[in-house]
Amino acid sequence: MSVQAISYRVGIDIGGTFTDFALLKGSEVVLHKNLSTPQDRSLGVMEGLGALAAKEGLPLGQFLGQCEAIVHGTTIADNTLIEMNGAVTGLITTEGFRDEVEYRRGFKEDIWDARLLPPKQITPRRRRQTVPERVLHDGTVHKPMDEAAVREACRRLRVQGVESVAISFLFSFINPAHERRVKEIAAQEMPGVHLSASHEVLPRGPEYDRTSTAVVNAYVGPRVTSYLEKLVQRLKDGGEKNQLMGMQASGGGGSNGYRGGTPTRGKANGP
Fold this sequence. Notes:
Oligomer: single chain
Largest sheet: 6 strands, mixed
Number of helices: 8
Strand order of the largest sheet: 3-2-1-4-11-12
Radius of gyration: 22 Å
Structural class: alpha/beta
Number of strands: 12
Distance between the termini: 51 Å
């Protein structure tokens, strides 16, 4: 009489010091904790999965083959912002809105402190480039985009060694045509550079909220993507057949395209 293989579900949470695991098999929960591996956090994940497999008396490949789902949460994006060690990031935005990310809708942590220094900018002014174009609130193109100016902006950012670029135009969440074209041009002018278009990251107003979110996504995106690519490949090589589920800031989860390739833009690829 054949014995039916046990199916598993695994939850993983990577912190700065420890990586925590929760293994669900039926109604039983098995917990495990091991040190994180900052030099390559995917190694710590695989070490923990190997330890769980050993607890079940299984080789890693067989254990992963019996995993119905692996749900993964990480603070890599948060830590990147806290430590300010993200990608060298630039911004391409509508002409006249170069300093919007510094205005911050007029917000100040202490309105009575005249000496309060502004927060450090992810995109300093020299890395914020503007392009003549204008889309109105109803999506009508008031001023066609100057593609020559886009290419010049890309050239200036390339000279500064930019690794990631945020793109945010007025009302692009209504009509994203200009942002989409900038992505095409930037991919030609700066091959290999990570691109973050605001209409994909946060398709709504107000302008500061959308622009700043696109900038943060551009800043942390390469770090998160690099990590996930390594982890997905290690899981695939180890025998995992299902998609890696990413825990989102909302508390939900989604696959976000993590199947042995570059993660698609999604909630987990943002901050």
